[in-house]
Design a protein that fits this description.
about 300 residues; mainly alpha; about 0% strand; peroxisome; Pex16; peroxisome biogenesis
Length: about 300
């Protein structure tokens, strides 16, 4: 995260680093809010920092603390995350976009150096201005041979690319000319606000119920009910709201993580994976997959944040 902020400042200060391709909608939106609101910038950074270290914190609690203290720590982490998400929601008044900070979309190794002077210990990066002269014994045969019919490429069999097909991907869309903060529309109706708040507090409710009841299906069923309730309440974005549609599509894909949680994992998914791993253990190449699965299954059993919502 720190390196990304440094590279972003360099990209802004150096005109020659201006990208040839425009930034993605996600980068434009999150970058605009980070520059517009000091509260959004630090809340988003804190939220991402917690997301990076939450599993490490749980591993430390599992080794050094009791089970009760470990789950108390998980609930505290989820409370902090829910609070930070509510802060982002209050600042933007729009659905949350994940991740809330801009992501790096370029490779720093391909950037040209800041200085045009080359080091005396390194080979020159550009060819010399004048090419060496051709030796006298090679100054002949300047007349090219006629092309042989077997060596000439055949004429093209299809017509060239139409101009419309070439220009259409390069045409501007409504999202290209819209202000970055307007890429996601403001939440207007109470139903939209309720759907977003339920989505924010859902992990906290799930972790709180798991802390006190890990034997029954109540935590899993409650989390699933909140998930689908929030999904049914949320608004349907327009076709021009590409960023919001991508966010909702990501949330829908995350529902598949419930296959690795609770009784669904214990009674259906884990037996299936164990059966596949046992059947492929002695098969060449597939045995590597079997070994990875067998090492991965205990981690899902032991740690909450491997599959946390």
């Amino acid at each position: 995260m720190y390196h990304d902020t440094i590279l972003s400042k360099i990209m802004q200060s150096e005109p020659k680093y201006k990208p040839l391709l425009p930034f993605s909608l996600h980068v434009r939106y999150t970058k605009a809010w980070s520059e517009k609101s000091f509260t959004y910038k630090w809340a988003a950074r804190a939220l991402e920092l917690i997301r990076f270290v939450e599993l490490l914190v749980e591993m430390g609690l599992r080794r050094k603390a009791s089970v009760k203290a470990r789950w108390r720590g998980i609930v505290i982490i989820e409370m902090i995350k829910a609070f930070l998400r509510c802060v982002l929601l209050r600042v933007t008044r729009r659905p949350l976009i994940s991740p809330p900070i801009p992501e790096r979309e370029f490779d720093p190794s391909v950037l040209p150096p800041l200085s045009n002077t080359s080091s005396p210990t390194l080979a020159p990066s550009s060819p010399p201005s004048s090419l060496p002269s051709t030796p006298d014994h090679l100054r002949n045969n300047h007349t090219p041979l006629p092309p042989h019919p077997l060596l000439t490429p055949p004429p093209p069999t299809q017509s060239p690319l139409p101009v419309e097909d070439y220009l259409l991907p390069k045409a501007l869309t409504t999202a290209s000319v819209r202000t970055p903060t307007a890429l996601v529309k403001v939440l207007t109706s109470p139903k939209d606000w309720i759907a977003e708040v339920i989505y924010i507090i859902r992990p906290l409710i799930y972790a709180s119920m798991l802390a006190s009841d890990r034997e029954t299906n109540r935590p899993l069923l409650t989390a699933l009910a909140l998930e689908f309730f929030s999904r049914n309440l949320r608004r349907v974005p327009s076709s021009s709201s590409a960023l919001e549609r991508a966010e909702y599509a990501r949330r829908d894909r995350d529902i598949l993580w419930y296959l690795l949680r609770g009784s669904i994992w214990e009674t259906w998914t884990r037996p299936k994976l164990e059966s596949i791993a046992d059947s492929t253990a002695n098969v060449p190449l597939l045995g590597l997959f079997s070994a990875v699965v067998k090492d991965w299954i205990p981690l899902i059993d032991e740690y909450y944040y491997y599959t946390a919502p």
